[in-house]
Write a structure and sequence with these properties.
Largest sheet: 2 strands, antiparallel
Low-confidence stretches: none
Strand content: 5-15%
Number of strands: 2
Order of helices and strands: EEHHHHHH
Structural class: mainly alpha
Shape: rod-shaped
Mean pLDDT: 84
C-alpha cells in the first residue's frame, strides 16, 4: 500500500491505495500538469502574438522600414556635405533616374570625365558614411 495526496473538492486528502493504482494516478497527474502547461503556453503564444496585439490596436512599424529610415537619414546627411554641383549630380542620376550620358551632356562634360567625377563623388560619400 502507498499513500498519495489528491485534491477532492478543493481539499487535499491523503489516501492509502495499492501500488498499481498509485502509479497510474501519478502518471495521470503528471500528464494533466503537462497538458495544463501546454494550454498555458498556447494561451501566452496566442495573446502575445503580433496578430493578437494588432487586434487590440497595437501598431508596429516594420523593422525593415525603421532600418531603411535610419539609412536614408544617414545618406541625406552625407549628401548634404557634398558641394551643390555634386548634390545635383547625385540627385539627377540616382533619385531622378536620368541617364548619365544625358546629365553629362547637360553639364557640358565628356562621358568619361563625368563617370570619373561620379566615381569620386561616390567615394567621397562612402568615406563620409564610414
Amino acid at each position: 500500500m502507498t499513500t498519495i495526496k489528491c485534491e477532492i473538492n478543493g481539499k487535499v486528502t491523503e489516501i492509502e491505495v495499492e501500488e498499481s493504482f498509485a502509479s497510474a494516478y501519478l502518471e495521470i497527474e503528471a500528464e494533466s500538469k503537462r497538458e495544463q502547461w501546454r494550454q498555458d503556453w498556447r494561451n501566452r503564444k496566442h495573446n502575445c502574438s503580433l496578430e493578437a496585439m494588432e487586434a487590440q490596436g497595437v501598431q508596429f512599424a516594420a523593422p525593415d522600414t525603421l532600418e531603411e529610415d535610419e539609412e536614408k537619414a544617414e545618406l541625406c546627411k552625407a549628401i548634404s556635405q557634398l558641394t551643390a554641383e555634386q548634390q545635383e549630380i547625385i540627385r539627377r542620376v540616382y533619385f531622378n533616374g536620368e541617364k548619365k550620358s544625358e546629365v553629362a551632356k547637360s553639364l557640358g562634360i565628356a562621358n568619361s570625365s563625368f563617370t570619373e567625377r561620379l566615381q569620386r563623388i561616390l567615394k567621397k560619400l562612402k568615406d563620409i558614411l564610414q
